[in-house]
Each structure stands twice: as C-alpha cells, then as structure tokens.
Amino acid sequence: MKQIFTPILLLFAALAAYGQQPMIEVQKVDFKTTNDKWTQVEVELLANKNLLPDARDENYVEDIKVKLYLGYLIDSKAKKYDYYTSELEIVMMESGDKNSVYFYLPGIIVDRDGLDTIPTYFYVEISVGGEVMPPQERATTNDSDFRRSFLNTFVSKADSEGEANKDLLMPIYLAPSTAYGRISNLPLILRRDVRP
Which CATH fold topology does 22-190 show? Predict the structure, then answer.
C-alpha cells in the first residue's frame, strides 16, 4: 500500500510546484525609442505571495533584484554580439502590486552602432532574497529555442564579454531625465551607488 501512495504523493507535489506562481512575475518587456534615440526598456512586474520560509509577511515580497541582459548582433558573418547588462534593486512590493522598472541605452551608442530598438536577444533575471528565480517566458526573447538551449550561454557571455560596455545600460535613476519616455508605477528602488 505504501508503494502506491509514494508515487501519488510525489505527483501531487510536482503538480503543486508546477502550478505555483513566481513571487515576482514579469508581465511584459517593452522597448521604445525616446528623445535623442535613447532606447527605453520597460519591465512590468507583478508581485504575488512571498513564498520564502523566512518572510516577515507573505503579502510583501522584499529584496528584489532585476537584472537586464541585452544582446545585439553586430556582425552576422562572425556571429559577434555586443552585450549590455544593468540591474537595480526594489525594496519591496505588496502582493497584487503591478510596477514597472526602466533601463536606458544612450542614443549616441545606438546611433554609432546602428542598433535596433529591440535587441536580438534579451533576458530579465529576477532574484528575491538573494535567490535567482527560474526563467519566465515573458522575461526572455520570444523564441523557445533561445530559452531551451541558448539562455545559459547568453547570460554567461553577457556577463563576461559585456565588460567592455559596463555601465552603459543604465537604470532609470542614472539616466538623464531628458531620455525618459512615458514612465509610470515605479516601485520603491534602493540606490546603492550613493553609499560609501
């Protein structure tokens, strides 16, 4: 009898985990050209329940990091990409909150390199409480092959080869206000760049 119940319990546990909503859900990633050809990237987030065992309150998700990876194909024959990364921290979101964070790539770089508004590949990595969340479908390039077989390589290359473009992709608080397009529903962002 015990042998029958063990696989059934494992099946229910797997189904429960599969159906579980991420604590922070990427709703959309939107790319726009703003003033002076700056590229604005909006990442819309939805807060669900905090599932961490040490959460102070399940209705509040804290210590959220959003890291954006962009990859632009600049030489198709050599399969050479330019990579840009940036991240920011959100202090907290309440369950049910829908907020947007913004990143900016300077127009002078976009113009110099002839970059499209929408990159060849992108990925939004979310971490909560220092734990990186599994990739979400809406947080990556709309290409199932990319998600299935190229995402880990893309992140690794962006982290290593993107050093040449360090700090060029900026979170909203480092970009000049003249670069902003329409912005709304900003969460409480923690700025570590101003601390010693």
Answer: Immunoglobulin-like (2.60.40)
